[in-house]
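Lab meeting, action items carried over

1. Structure of the two-component assembly. Owner: GW. Status: complete.
Input record:
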Amino acid sequence: MKALGRQILVEYYDCDVNAINDVDFVERVLLDGTKNAKATVISHNFHKFSPHGVSGTVVIAESHVAIHTWPEYGYAAVDIFTCGETIDPWVIQEYLKENFKSSNVSSMELKRGLFKVGPGEELLFKPKENAELSFYK
Amino acid sequence: MKALGRQILVEYYDCDVNAINDVDFVERVLLDGTKNAKATVISHNFHKFSPHGVSGTVVIAESHVAIHTWPEYGYAAVDIFTCGETIDPWVIQEYLKENFKSSNVSSMELKRGLFKVGPGEELLFKPKENAELSFYK
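Predicted assembly:
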């Protein structure tokens, strides 16, 4: 079995409350973190909630990063979903940890999209440029 | 221990290839699915890849739904992250299954943001309107 992608679910506890309540800061950290990991950013959307809390997503060519923060609990929930061999999701995880000053991190890595592949066969997370969909059916 | 949120990771295998390659259809299904579950949509972003494949996120007041599709493998990876008692993420999961005509679904539910709470204490996923952040520190 081979997997199309990897996903890290991260619980950042005991964060810097002001850092994870600052929507501009959170957005910059996620964008810089994904760029550091050589991901290609496609779009990003961040929101500040009233009276506090931030939610945001960064769609990357290699999948996505999503965050929800609860400053009142010093906590941020983050998902880092990546495909391909060029990106290491743990680089993003570490960058966020440093910037949110989380002193208590719990992470879990899962494989997404499991397929049986025969000997010598490839599981391409990105189709070849001229690939026709009917070819696969 | 109580949790701030629930997350369902869904692997939709053996989907209708044309359905999961149609960015407008995928977007409508995710929006309708979240609305059916009484979620409050805050923003949504969907992208079509060349030569095929769709990625998208729906940020809801209660967290998010994200999708990545690989029509060439008949596969869609979906995350459904919800908070609060009013939304059932499985309603969304079921709606997507029907619309993508997936005949092989694998799902896993996880709890996000675990905290110890004392007797009679509440874990509020949404802060009270006038709550001051300094109150929590």
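2. GW to write a short summary for the group page. Key points so far: Helices of chain A lie at 17-20, 23-36, 89-100, 133-136. Residues 23-36 of chain A form the longest helix (14 residues).
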